[in-house]
Amino acid sequence: MKQPLIALIAALSALAAPALPAAAQVGAASAASPGDPAARPFVEALVGDGFAILRDKSIDRQAARARFRQILQRDVALDDIGMRLIRRQRTGLTPAQLSAYRAAFPEFVLNAYADRLYDYADARVQVQRTIGRGPYTEVYTRVTRPGAQPIDTIWQVKNRDDSSGGKLQVNNLVVGGVNLSLTQEADFTSYIAKNGFDALVAFLKTANARSLAVQAGNK
User: Fold this and answer.
1) Closest by Cα among 93, 91, 87 to 196
2) Cystine design at 166: which of 98, 147, 155, 161 (Cβ 3.0–4.6 Å)?
3) Alpha-carbon distance 91 to 69, whole Å?
């Protein structure tokens, strides 16, 4: 199975709009609502937390992975994202199949991206603007790295209204015009069509076990 694209933090969804051409973005920014004012500092804090881990020379990658896991669980709508990726198949699944998938998916996301985040340890992220789109706020950022072309990234942020009083979470990323959710959903859909849903869950579990073995060997 192909690995999905990544820029900073793993986040997926089926709802974000594709990136607008530059001229259209300027017009949209001036005419549209800025959305939730808390979205900008939320993304800035999330990025700051991630870079603090990447640049902390006092911790090894296993400890860093544990911290990334905490960030994902806290700030990314992992379960909602996972459910959207299988939205076409969901009605035909048994409770056991759904439970197995939901258990394997978050760790798969962590394993797929955690080590590759180190490629961006020298990056800089600047928030450019925010735009409200219905219940979501899109936070537009530019990722720059020495010697590399800038990458424009849209963070789709939502307010998760729950018993804890509600909190902001990342619902999707659009990186360089590529909607990560749609990319991963297409990948999962193709795999399920060829191999079946149980095979997808087995693939996720195998990938997780392989990553665990690699981590154990690197101790």
Assistant:
1) 93
2) 161
3) 29
Length of the chain: 219
The string of pLDDT tens digits covering residues 160-195 is: 765 445 689 999 999 988 988 899 999 999 999 999
In whole angstroms, give the CA distance from residue 43 to residue 157: 8
Q: CATH code at 87?
A: 3.10.450.710
Residue 102 belongs to a domain: yes
In a domain, 4, yes or no: no
The verdict on residue 13 lying in a domain is no
Can you tell me the distance from the alpha carbon of 76 to that of 161, in angstroms, rounded to the nearest whole number? 14
Q: Are 66 and 212 in contact (CB under 8 A)?
A: no
Lowest mean pLDDT among 29-43, 70-84, 169-183, 186-200: 29-43
H or E, element range at 172: strand 167-175
User: Which residues, 6+ apart, have CB-to-CB distance to 144 below 8 Å?
Assistant: 123, 124, 125, 126, 150, 151
Rounded CA-CA distance 1/193 in Å is: 13
With H, G, I as helix, E, B as strand and everything else as coil, classify residue 199: helix
User: CB of 13 within 8 A of CB of 181?
Assistant: yes
Both tokens of 44, joined, read 């800035």
DSSP state of 46: H
Question: Quick check: is 59 in a domain?
Answer: yes
